[in-house]
Amino acid sequence: MSKFKYVLIGGSAGAVGAVEAIREIDSSGSLALISDESLLAYSRPMIGEYLSGEVTIEGIMYRTGEFWNLSKVHLFCKRAIRIDLDDKFIMLDDEEKIGFEKLLIATGSKPRTIEIDGIDKDGVFNFNTLTDADAIRMKIGEIKKAIIIGGGLIGVCMAEALAKRGIEVTLVELRENLLSLLLDSVASNIIRTAVQKKGVNIITDHSVQRIKGTENNNNKVKGVVLDSGEEILCDIVMVAIGVIPCIDLVRGTKIKINRGIVVSRFMRTSVPDVYACGDVAEAYDFVLDKSRVLPQWPIAYLGGKVAGYNMAGETFKYPGGTVMSALKYFDIPIIAIGQTNPKNSDECQILTSHDLSGTSYKKVVLKKGKIIGLILVDDIERAGLFFYLMSKGINVDRFKEKLLSEDFGFITLPKRLRRTMLAESLTH
Amino acid sequence: MMKRISFREELCMGCGLCEVYCLVQHSKSKDITKAYKREFPKPFSRLRLEVNPPMVFAIQCQHCEEPACVAACLSGAMQKDKETGLVVHNAEKCVGCWTCIMVCPYGAIKRDINKRRVVAKCDLCSESMSPACVTNCPNEALTYKEVSL
């Protein structure tokens, strides 16, 4: 059995962050990575640009081809099938055993599935990996009409990519609004208008009941039937109703799981020497002040980096993340962070400014003097200041009336805070 | 030791020359008249002079030791150069997803939508010895000096 000081399972953002952190501290400790994905270290959020043809395969590489080599990573391009925590090894699908001293589980997430009639037909796709994108690209010339199930981030991303390919797209969303986990109805309607302007047909408040096959080949997608009874013809159906953590490998072990793998602020699991990060982990949310699954690329990278530092022996605390996304779809810049649509709105103060003639919109949600939610549409360049105030839990009562003003900036912040922030740029 | 731009707000008169010369430095012609009158796409300043009378503040990329923008970057376009300590942006690789803008505590990253949609920020005028904003600051409110990390 080969043995390594560090073993990582997964080859995406979390693993890259961990490798970079480990190598900052420990330049020679043996490091192995296990992943069965064909092309490691590509940017998963960029598969939309790859599908639309705006970016080549080289363009979506998150790190260069030499990255693993330069970082002295031993790659096992195989699937991990079992973790043995007592004897500290990973079993691969060819029964090879890889021993570890410290382990990082960064297995990511997989698409949520729906149980509808016809879901297994030829022409039904997910859109989470490069393999998914390649499968669609192979057929792209034959696709005239597409149905997308789900109006979240992946659904809207796919809608844009396919529309740019000249495909007639219909997006079906069960809820009233697009991107409802991220935006409020005002911002959601701004993007809806932009999506429709580009020719995408949007159907909300409805769901796909079943997928129909063609007359001469029932196994091939011909169209869908909605809950309203309406039938829409299409060549492909794309399912984008969210992701769930890939926890199969840890199920049945001593590692504590809730919805994902439970981790501390140091990305440690309940088992010593075993860490987790990224989509598979439940890490700290600074808005909710508790742990939750947050399947977002920057959070995975940062979690991986924190895990890597701690695995290599340098104590580093995860600052936390929250629901947050920067959007550029259909040329509308939007940044949304935290609770943009608070449930107990009577406990919150909500500041908004909305330019009705254009697409500019700002919303700040305050609770007990702190910002817990933010939406910026169009004028987004100062979003990071809000992100800082939110992540540090800074009381903004003294300057809250300036938060929405056009000249809100670094200068708006109290002098002492400005000094602290500038000093922080020089520290780890 | 790394060289960084420092700003002393008590010395700033708010003349705005830092923005003017940053723009010129990042123009095609590097000529003030041409840059303002004849260039398309219109060049812009990477530094931002924030004015809130009587206070003025010049802020630009701080080239952080632990840059939030690099950690958040979706494409790998934003990187920390280990040797120089600079936060370097590769505009070719950038896809303009705005995720770095979301997390920069200084609001120091701008959108550049003139050609392709990408971001732009202070590069410390990497081609020249001293940043243009510092060289052209008449009251030494902006200085370029060694800082201890």
Question: Could you describe the 3D structure shown?
Answer:
The complex is a heterodimer of chains A (428) and B (149). Chain A is of the alpha/beta class and 428 residues long. Chain A is built from 9 helices and 25 strands. In chain A, strands 1, 2, 3, 4, 5, 6 and 18 form a 7-stranded mixed β-sheet that branches. Chain A has a 5-stranded parallel β-sheet with strand order 8-15-9-10-11, covered by helices on one side. A 5-stranded antiparallel β-sheet of chain A has the order 21-22-25-24-23. In chain B, strand 6 (110-112) and strand 7 (118-120) form a beta hairpin. Chain B has 5 helices and 8 strands. By secondary structure, chain B is an alpha+beta fold. At the A-B interface, helix 7, strand 21, helix 8 and helix 9 of A face strand 2, strand 3, helix 3 and helix 4 of B.
Share of helix of chain B, binned: 10-25%
Largest sheet composition of chain B: 2 strands, antiparallel
Please state the structural category of chain B: alpha+beta
Query: And the CATH topology of the largest domain in chain A?
Result: FAD/NAD(P)-binding domain
Biggest sheet record of chain A: 7 strands, mixed
Structure in a nutshell:
The complex is a heterodimer of chains A (428) and B (149). Chain A has 428 residues and is α/β, with parallel strands linked by helices.
Q: How is this fold's topology laid out?
A:
The complex is a heterodimer of chains A (about 425) and B (about 150).
Chain A (H helix, E strand, L loop, with lengths): L1 E8 L3 H13 L5 E4 L12 H6 L14 H4 L2 E4 L3 E5 L4 E4 L4 E9 L3 E3 L12 E2 L4 H10 L5 E5 L3 H12 L3 E6 L11 H13 L3 E4 L3 E6 L7 E6 L4 E3 L2 E4 L3 E3 L15 E2 L11 E3 L4 E5 L4 E4 L3 H15 L12 E4 L6 E5 L10 E6 L6 E7 L2 E8 L5 H9 L23 H10 L4
Parallel strand pairs in A: 1-2, 1-6, 2-3, 6-18, 8-15, 9-10, 9-15, 10-11, 17-19
Antiparallel strand pairs in A: 4-5, 5-6, 7-16, 12-13, 13-14, 19-20, 21-22, 22-25, 23-24, 24-25
Helix pairs in contact in A: 1-7
Chain B lengths: L1 E6 L9 H9 L6 H6 L10 E5 L2 E5 L8 H5 L5 E3 L6 E3 L9 H5 L6 E3 L5 E3 L11 H4 L6 E6 L2
Antiparallel strand pairs in B: 1-8, 2-3, 4-5, 6-7
